[in-house]
Amino acid sequence: MGDACQACLTRIPHATLIATIMCCLGVGVFCGTMYRGSALSILMFDEVFHFRLIWIEALQMIFIVGSACMAALGLMLLCLGCLTTGATRQKVYRAWRARVGGRISCAVFMIITYILTFIWIVLLGFLVITTFLFTIFWKLCSKPENIALTTCIDFTQFDFMFPSSVKQDHMKICEAYKMKLFCKDYVEKAEFMFILAMVSCILVILSLVHYLMCLSANYAHIRDHEKFQELQELQYLTNPDLHASKDRF
Q1: 79-133: per-residue pLDDT in tens?
Q2: What is the Cα–Cα distance from 122 to 47, expressed in whole angstroms?
Q3: Domain range for 122
Q4: In a domain, 182, yes or no
Q5: Which of 27, 58, 133, 235 is deepest in the core (most CB within 10 A)?
Q6: Residue 38 burial class via C-beta count within 10 angstroms: exposed 0-12, middle 13-18, buried 19 and up
Q7: Is-contact 229 221, C-beta < 8 A?
Q8: What pLDDT sits at residue 226?
């Protein structure tokens, strides 16, 4: 029983499994928080500033599709890791064509993972800017004079960032209900969502880097598998006792 358990554990790609758990966890949190954060942003722009950003709604669908693709990629990399680990590698990649196919698969996945790493780094930069903006909004909401409604939160100096259809009066937040909508209902919740999305994005980037290391190691294992086989057979020919001891275990 112990030998069977040990043999099973040697077939598990622990490094790839850890990377897959990190990737799925990060992607799941990222998808949920970004969907919620973008929904709050849409409502904020619509109800407070009275304009709609259609492209944010398109981003929500992109987040869902992209998250599903990342989860599928993680599962494929886990399967590839299982095929290139322990005794499974010796059985699957025994033939020359199988080894060539395995090396090509690892190389293709390394290229895909490398590209995805840059994409997620760009997403991280976007989230850092977004989180910084919402932190500034929350600091404006936390000012005592704005809490007491003695002054307005004025965005007219940033009118170049708004669509031309937005009126100047809509860029000022003075009323109590608009202050509550902007600060409590939208900015406070959206800032928390974007902070979680930023942390999950970092987790996904770490998992992709982990995948790259695992794929590089698997590529080297497949490439050198033939050399190891020839060396092992040579040792068996020169020292038959090694083959006999191997059979005993």
Answers
A1: 887 777 665 556 666 666 777 777 888 889 999 999 999 999 999 999 999 999 9
A2: 30
A3: 11-83+105-220
A4: yes
A5: 27
A6: buried
A7: no
A8: 61
Instruction: Read off the pLDDT of residues 203-239 as tens digits, 9 standing for 90 and up.
Output: 999 999 999 998 888 887 777 666 666 666 566 566 6
Q: Number of folded domains in the chain? A: 1
The DSSP secondary-structure symbol of 153 reads E
Domain-embedded: residue 227: no
Instruction: Answer left, alpha or beta for residue 50, where phi above 0 means left and psi between -120 and 50 means alpha.
Output: left
Whether 195 is in a domain gets the answer yes
Q: How far is CA 86 from the centre of its chain?
A: 28
Do 211 and 23 contact (CB within 8 A), yes or no? yes
**Would you say residue 74 lies in a domain?**
yes
Distance in angstroms (rounded) separating the CA atoms of residues 178 and 69: 39
Q: Please choose, from the candidates 2, 20, 129, 119, the residue with its C-alpha nearest in 3D space to the C-alpha of residue 75.
A: 20
What Å distances lie between residue 121 and 52, 203, 226, CA to CA? Answer: 28, 11, 37
Rounded Cα distance between 36 and 109, Å, is 31
40-44, 59-63, 208-212 — most confident range: 208-212
More confident residue, 59 or 204: 204
Indicate the pTM of the whole model.
Answer: 0.81
DSSP element (H, E) containing 173: strand 172-173
